[in-house]
Design a protein that fits this description.
Number of helices: 7
Strand order of the largest sheet: 3-2-1-4-5-6
Radius of gyration: 16 Å
Helix content: 25-40%
Length: 191
C-alpha cells in the first residue's frame, strides 16, 4: 500500500504557546523549534499540512461544561482574537489547511477526516500541545479511523516531562509509532 502522510500541528496558538499566553502550557516553548523543522520538511516535500486550532464563541456557548467557569473568568481561544491565532513562528502559508475545533480531538465535529481521505492521506504525523489532552485524543481517534499514526516526541509538549512521558508510553502501547524530529525525514524517504 502506498503511504501518503500529512502533518497535524495541534493548538500552537497564542493563548497557549506564546510568551504572553492566557493559559500557558509549560512545554509549549520547547516544541516550537522542532515544529518549525517539521513544517519546513513537509513544505519542502509538498505534503499536506494541517494547523488544528481550538476556537470558541465569545459567549463561551461551545466550551466544555468542565471549562465553562474558567472561560468566564479567563476567556481563551476566542474566535477572531489574537489569542486564537497560530503563533507567528508557525504561521500557516497559503495552501496549508486550518481546522477549527471546539473539543480536544481534531476529528470531533470537524472536516479533518473527510479532508485527509479526499487528499489520499493514510498517515498522520502529529505534534503540538498538549500531550495528555488534545494530542492524545486526536491520536486515539486517528488510530480508530485506521490512520497510521506517528507522534513526534520532541515536537509535542505537556505541563511536565512526567505527564508527557506517561502519555507517550500509552500511545506507543496501542501501536503509535514514536519518532523524534531528526528521524522524520529518513522515515518519509523510506515510504
Amino acid at each position: 500500500m502506498t503511504r501518503k502522510p500529512a502533518l497535524l500541528i495541534i493548538d500552537m496558538q497564542n493563548d497557549f504557546a506564546s510568551t504572553h499566553a492566557v493559559l500557558p502550557v509549560a512545554g509549549a516553548q520547547a516544541v516550537i523549534t522542532p515544529l518549525t523543522q517539521l513544517l519546513s520538511l513537509f513544505r519542502e516535500k509538498q505534503l499536506p499540512i494541517f494547523h488544528i486550532v481550538r476556537v470558541h464563541e465569545p459567549d463561551g456557548s461551545d466550551v466544555e461544561w468542565f471549562r465553562a467557569e474558567m472561560f468566564k473568568d479567563k476567556p481563551f481561544a476566542v474566535r477572531g482574537s489574537h489569542g486564537a491565532a497560530v503563533i507567528n513562528e508557525l504561521t500557516p502559508l497559503p495552501g496549508e489547511h486550518l481546522i477549527e475545533k471546539v473539543r480536544m480531538s481534531a476529528f470531533i465535529g470537524t472536516t479533518l477526516d473527510l479532508m485527509l481521505r479526499t487528499l489520499g492521506v493514510n498517515v498522520v504525523v502529529v505534534g503540538g500541545i498538549q500531550t495528555p489532552n488534545c494530542i492524545r485524543t486526536t491520536i486515539f481517534d486517528a488510530m480508530a479511523y485506521n490512520y497510521v499514526t506517528i507522534l513526534v516526541d520532541d515536537a509535542t509538549g505537556a505541563q511536565t516531562k512526567e505527564i508527557h512521558e506517561a502519555n507517550v508510553l500509552d500511545m506507543k502501547n496501542i501501536g503509535v509509532k514514536i519518532l523524534n524530529t531528526a528521524d522524520v525525514a529518513p522515515w518519509l524517504d523510506s515510504l
